[in-house]
Amino acid sequence: MSQQNEALFNELSGLDKKHIIHPSTNPKLHSEIGPKLIFESGEGIYLKDMGGKTYIDGVSMLWNVNVGHGVKELAEAAYEQMTKAAYTTTFYGYSNEASVRLAEKIAKVTPGDLNAIFYTSGGSESNDTAFKLSRSYWDIKGKKDKKLIISLRRGYHGVTIATQRATGIDAYREFSGSGDPNIVNAKPHMTECELGDKSHPEYEGSIRSIIEREGADKVAAVIVEPIQGAGGVHVPPEGYLKAVRALCDEFDIHMIADEIICGFGRTGKMFGVDHWDVVPDFICAAKGMTSGYVQLGGVIMREEIRDTFFTYDGMLPHGFTYSGHPTACAVGLKNLEILERDGLIENAAAMGEELQKGLNYLEDKYSFVGNTRSRGLLAGFDLMEDPAAGKPFETIKAAATVVEEAYKRELLIRPFDFTPGMNIVAIAPPLIVQKDEVEKIIAIVDDALGAFAKTL
Ligand SMILES: Cc1ncc(COP(=O)(O)O)c(C=O)c1O
Questions:
Q1: How far is the CA of 125 from the centre of ligand 1 (A)?
Q2: Shared-domain flag, residues 317 and 352
Q3: pLDDT at position 2
Q4: Pocket perturbation via mutation, ligand 1, pick of 157, 294, 320 by most ligand atoms within 8 A of CB
Q5: 63: alpha, beta or left? (left if phi > 0; alpha if psi -120 to 50)
Q6: Is residue 16 part of a domain?
Q7: What spacing in Å lies between the alpha carbon of 214 and ligand 1's midpoint?
């Protein structure tokens, strides 16, 4: 690091420690050591920090920078909109061209008749809004008791009071001891149970068993991520999402797909549900909707839900200052154009196969690597003492160690180790990644695993 950069880094680091409480960060540690990295610029799959080091962004930051870093067209789209009208509201029936054009475009790329959107500024807001719209829909239909939301263990749906409760990861779910009590977690991916096999030894705790216990007249919606992300990249078994769809139909309950990670090409199709030909009632989106360049989210709903809201003759008391933000929508529109024009979703599918080949190689090479899995460019693997026997590392922080070793080699990837014995590593590079770059990522992970192996 140059002397000038070092002085600036030290200044910013001191100010950061003093003035910012960081999300998903250890506050005590942060107050002692300050920021690990201060990013300066980005290009493609690479990020440069103030020290002049260049890192491969192997997780697209928070699995959201789908088109990669430094895309000037997105900046230009923002500039163009900002210099016309940076912000106008969509309250009181006001509108703006960018939000209309994006809504029309999204209606075209979503499955089935998911043709109307309620705009938000992020993922938590989208899921929170979907819960409220679902409950409010049932209110309008005269079914005022349908309030319960069922989500899955290991699911991650955000950090608002409602979405933290839907999240099935205890650290988040229990934080601050609050949370909407009308939200319960079911066991994840119990396909047979959801199809109706009540003799299954694990039936208790399935979505179906909760509906049975509570009564369908009390349940508003089921929310699932097509592929669970922060819970550890869990791809559902074949038939699972279709079983949930059928269950929701059987009991007249909404199915909400949390596509906040999966949406906009991450899994090699536009939406995660597209892999299983499932049409949910609501799709919640954010992240890849603008590739993270600006904050934008939305709840996309089926026409019948939209039409039910059209019968509501009063002011809809919900909305965010930034719902339908013109600059965010202009960026969202350009982002979708780039995804399609540059074939990035097809690239995600093809590069996903390369990534999985690399992971298979690592699984063969290291006895402690298991359950490598992926869809498109959403991938993960377990680190276990004995994956075949399902024996975890009891005390060793394997995922954190491997991720740290990768970091030393200038690759950013993510550990998931919320519960004892959980050691999952996630890889999710931008959708523009090329074959030689995937090989580089695998080579670095290989070295990091080798370094970890030496500590055993
Ligand atoms: C699947 C999923 N849902 C919801 C959220 C919450 O989104 P946000 O952090 O934008 O509120 C996230 C964030 O990581 C997510 O991965």
A1: 9
A2: no
A3: 81
A4: 157
A5: left
A6: no
A7: 28
